[in-house]
Amino acid sequence: MSSVDHHLNLFPPLIQVGHTEQFIQSGRTLLSAQSPLNQSYAVFPSALKDVSSIKCSGVEEQPIFFASSETSPSSERRLFTGDTSIIFAALQNLTKTAQSRGQEWLHSQETHDVIRKLTLDYVNFTRECWIHTSQTSVQSQGSSQFSGDHYRSLYTCLALFAVLYVPEYGYEDAPVGDDLMEWLNVHFIEPSTEEGDHLSGLDRPWEDETFWPYLVRVTLRGLSKAATFFLATLSTHPSDNLRRLAQRLSPLLQSQPHLQSFEAERDFAYASHRWKDKVQALRIELDRVSESDRHDGIENWWDRLSDIVGILEGRSEVIRRVCEDLGADWREISVSWGVFADARLRRQDLPEVVSQVLDDMPQDPTNLEDMVHAALFSGDPAKALSHAAQLDPWLAAHMADLMQALSLIEEEANEDSGLNVRDFYVLSYAQHLHADPALWRITVAYMFSCGETGVRSADEVLMRVPLKLRFVGSITHDQGEQNGANNFKSGDLVGVVKDINATCYEYQREEVRRTICRIAAQTFVQEKEYGLALSYSSSAEDWPGLGRVVDRVLQEYITAGPEQFTRYVAGIAPSLQALRMQSGAQGIFIHRLMFAVRYAEFHQRLGNQDLQDAAWDLVSMFQDGLTPKSWWAVLLCDSQQLLQHDATLLLPYASACILLQHLEEVIARTDQGSGDEYLSVLISKLGSSGTTEALHALQGVRLALAKYFARCTMIGTGGKQILERKFIAAV
Fold it and tell me: I want to staple 310 with a disulfide (CB 3.0 to 4.6 A). Which of 53, 202, 318, 628 is the partner?
């Protein structure tokens, strides 16, 4: 299915190209129903009349097409989804452990370190996917579901989340400016490398119009090496004052204190204060430069140098103005504030600063990445999730999962939906994944983590996992059957059902597992794999279903003959012993299975001309009460061949009497109006439409019995030609 401009294209097509008019003239139309769980639709053809009349008219069943407005994941997205689901599973295991150990353990250093590690794993995976997608050829990008820039956005958002909300343990209240500046320089590189290469190749770089903007920008970004390199080029500048001030400025840039260089924040604060005193001394010296020497004929170098010193002084008005002149955004102003204006700015104080910045330089409402950043800077996780969901459901789901583990969002469920914030976004992402049926394992893993609502959704997904992986080409009947057979032979069906069963065991969904086993059994019956059908019916403890499987096997005797019937029974016979040992098995259905096995053995001996054992099998099925009444007439007709055997008498007199008793009951009950109970199977076997032919066949059995009794009388019941043996029922 593909979605283009609000159109859902079914594949394979429900209506072939050029046959639309023919479809309309047939008096049919297309109906659809949307799933209440996700953006999927059931589309099906229907007659142009009310639903009730359709149900009563016996109209032939029509196919139902399932389509989704969600785009199925591409190969690169599927790989990304699978890899990150491993991290998600690890966090769920951590959460389960916390539930058993208590909330104190959840807030311990051990747990925090694990959460931080998993957060950085997310960051690294998005980074790798961004690099991989960006490095693909133009042709490959055309087939990619998301561009490299999309994954770059995920990367920046998660990296910022890690900086602001998952710092190293014990650094939650530490100044955040340096960490934010590192994030900014990694993800939003300014100035460009090309600009630096261009200037470094000039003999007199200060004469280039980009020199001073470049120098101011690298200072603002804390890139001291680049700044000192280009300050050194001013050693040949004609202005003595500029040469002297540049020489004084370089060590200041190199010696700016950074928190990670100190063991204690107090030492960092003291060093910062001392450093600011040196900057103030440079300001005094700068102000002493006369007005006449502040311009070199190309640029007012004093204004530019004053801006640099103003940044180092932490003057907010200078930082704002410089950022505006350079085309920087609110992020650069906010981060620079935490490095220069307030070097001890803490995470909890950052939202107030950002709020003031955003009042003058708001974020771009058309850029979702920018909106997520602004919400994270502003200390508003809920709003960040809202924007992240629009950017990518994956981002919102995994950020929400981390946020709940860190107690950043409410855990209380909404009264209307029954979902808390975390579960809402995770479940939304799971429903997004459900657009690709092949991802059902990952889909239910996310759903099962979302409380009762998620469990119910996962149950529905499990019960609707496609069991047949048919070829999606033509939908003609013959090809469909052929392709289905090929797939079945490859073992796809068994493998899928085993995977589903394993998932149900993992999440303790026994009722769902049984339902799926019942569905699988029905599918196996359609494929005439009766042994597997019996096994799955037993696994589901679906005893009526097991009985229906046996009935289908017995029906094979009617439709395909004894030889094919015997082969099918060979597939179900191994299950008999295990079922007899199963305490919950219902006897009536087991007896039916025993009859099928014994009846197949009878025909096998009959085919091998082992007539003596075949005769004993036949009588024993009546004596042991295994034969259903509907099959009495069939077995009695089978006995005619044995009764008419000329070489020897195969049955003792008493056994022949048993056959006669059952024959008389069948005929008598038929005369009393119970013919359907006794003759239905024989009628089907004979291919007749009534009881006349069946009764005629039974009259032949009566005649054969009469002749048999006559032969017994002539030679004496139990005479030498009667072979005595102890019959042991075969099981």
Answer: 318
DSSP class per residue in 631-657:
GHHHHHHHHHHHHT-SSS--S-HHHHH
Per-residue pLDDT, 296: 83
| Contact (CB, 8 A) for 521 and 544 | no
Burial code (b: 16+ CB inside 10 Å, e: under 16) for 516-533 equals bbbbbbbbbbebbbbbbb
What is the model's pTM? 0.80
Residues 6 or more apart whose CB falls under 8 angstroms from that of 464 comprise none
Distance separating alpha carbons of residues 267 and 271, to the nearest angstrom: 6
Q: How far apart are CA 399 and CA 421, in angstroms?
A: 11
For residue 346, give the DSSP letter: B
CA 509, CA 521: separation in Å to the nearest integer?
18
Only one residue has tokens 């975390």, namely 422
Handedness of CA 44, 45, 48, 50 (dihedral sign): negative
Residue-wise over 387-411: b if at least 16 C-beta within 10 A, else e?
bbbebbbbbbbbbbbbbbbbebbee
Nearest one of 174, 547, 473, 460 to 343, comparing CA atoms: 174
Other CB atoms within 10 Å distance of the CB of residue 209: 9
Using alpha carbons, select from 552, 696, 416, 617 the residue that is nearest to residue 544.
Answer: 552
Measure the CA–CA gap between 446 and 433, rounded to whole angstroms. 10
Residues 514 and 544 sit within 8 Å (Cβ to Cβ): no
Q: Please, which residues bridge with residue 66 across strands?
A: 42
Residue type, 19: H
Instruction: Tell me how far apart the alpha carbons of residues 64 and 73 are, in angstroms, rounded to a whole number.
Output: 23
Contacts of the segment 262-268: beta carbons below 8 A, 24+ positions apart: 265/174, 265/175, 265/344, 268/175, 268/343
pLDDT at 701 over 80: yes
Q: Show the tokens assigned to 30.
A: 């297309």
Both structure tokens of 171: 């650094």
Tokens of 225: 């090496």
Determine if residue 82 is left, alpha or beta; phi over 0 gives left, psi from -120 to 50 gives alpha, anything else beta: alpha
356-384: average pLDDT: 95
The residue type of 245 is L
Confidence bin at 37 (pLDDT 50/70/90): low
Q: Nearest-5° angle of CA 704, CA 705, CA 706? A: 90
| CB neighbour list of residue 229: distance below 8 Å, 6 or more residues apart | 200
Query: What tokens does 194 get?
Result: 């090309």
Distance, CA of 648 to CA of 651 (rounded, Å):
9
Rounded Cα gap, residues 558 and 343, in angstroms: 90
Q: What whole-number distance in Å separates Cα of residue 154 and Cα of residue 130?
A: 9
∠ at Cα 204 (199, 207), nearest 5°? 80
Q: For the beta carbon of residue 219, count every other beta carbon within 10 angstroms.
A: 25
- In three-state form (DSSP H/G/I as H, E/B as E, the rest C), the secondary structure along 166-213 is CCCCCCCCCECHHHHHHHHHHHCCCCCHHHHHHHHCCCCHHHCCCHHH
Q: What angle do CA 719, 721, 725 make, to 5 degrees?
A: 90
pLDDT digits (tens, 9 = 90+) for 598-647: 999 999 999 899 999 999 999 999 998 888 999 999 999 999 999 998 88
Based on C-alpha coordinates, what's the Rg of the chain? 42
Angle at 675 between CA 672 and CA 676, to 5 degrees: 135
